[in-house]
User: Fold this.
Amino acid sequence: MRATLQCTSLLGAAIVLLAGVVVATPASAANPIITSVYTADPAPLVVGNTLYVYAGRDEAASGQQNFLMREWRVLSSTDAATWTDHGAKANIGTFRWAGADAWASEVEPRNGKYYWYTSVNGNGAGWMDIGVAVGDSPLGPFTDAKGGPLISDSTPNSSGLNIDPTVFTDDDGQAYLYWGSYWGARAVKLKPNMIELDGPVVTPQGLQDFWEAPFMFKRNGLYYMIYAANDTNGCVTSSSYACQRYATATNPMGPWTHRGVVLGQVSSTTNHAGVAQFNGQWYMVYHNANAPGGGNFRRSVAVDLLHFNADGTMQRVTQTTTGPPPNPGTPPTGNIAPSATASTSHVSSWESLAAINDGGTPSSSADRSNLVYGNWPEQGTQWIEYTWPSARSINRTSVYWFDDDQGIDLPASCRAQYWTGSAYADVPGQSSCGTAANTFNSVTFPTVSTTRLRLSITARAGNSTGVLEWQAFAA
Ligand code: FUB
Assistant:
């Protein structure tokens, strides 16, 4: 947004843009999720089995150093990997009182209607306003819900720049509007009609280093606010850029407790993101400048996985060029070992830890035709372990032992362990861990939910141990 402060493009009141009619075209899984047009300021919304993303469109010519944004588009996906572009479903012409700058927006559902809160340049005094359009479906058609701005420079205690609305409706039906830029976050309650303020505009406390682009959501009873910050104290390398910091609160109006950075600097100067849980997986949608010919005013929407820690804090998002795999939150079935990251207390340098979850079926405990894991010359108790990026429900594990009749022998005993979130513990109620040669030895147990499963292996005296394949089965 920053460069636009010097070079705002006012297009004039005469501009009336018809909502674009675009044939829905599925795009393949990759980041950015769409490259046929430049898109920015994404806001996600889950309706049924569909993940929608509402985004502005960057139309600046190559080399142009200001935003040219005249419409808001809708994308959708049923697997968060493959996207359909539905085209523009609202534009500056949707608001008769506006003339330019179709900046960041967000859609909030209520009573079967969909309220599209937009940043837009009104024709009156001041610069940016927040308008509301309404439609009967996530794809509209959308019309102006109010006939004038919901927030403008004349709203008492409004932000220095009234853009970037995020609307959140709590379980009790109370809706909240947050917005702002120029380090000026603001919050206000909305009436049930979603188009009138319900009380005074307040300045939320605790959103450390807030610059702009708030997005609010709730998880496990805790309120989360992510927002763009541009400090160089752990956020960005230059304050021309921005990261996404986040804060949590136990009340939707705050006060907020700053928790850190959840999305680092992106390749565009602006950083605008949203969060959604879809089919059991959390996602962050954001924009960057990574599409061919992209830049600070030719941005593109990307989607990546978002992971929470057990204490409710968020892990920093890994920005990928591939995007997420299709529906990774769908519960896995069968042997989930191949999707895990393996680790061990020791592996012999000439053998391979990758053996244990490469999906092989050995013909015997002496089968060296595939990779082999062994921990020679270590003796006593050693371990192998699987880690998944989020918790898995597991109720069986099965191991095929390696025995080279030299330093590696069948073990004396073994047991399944799991990470409780703070320590390793024996998996409760597990059946005996078999040590037979030339077969898979299964261990069953009541389902545990864990990110880490460990096989603790105790060698026979004077020997080391080895594994040809170790499976873990989703409950
Ligand atoms: O896209 C125009 C403005 O840039 C948005 O409103 C800000 O959040 C920033 O992304």
About this structure: Residues 348 and 375 are 5 Å apart (CA to CA). The chain has two domains: 3-306, 337-474.
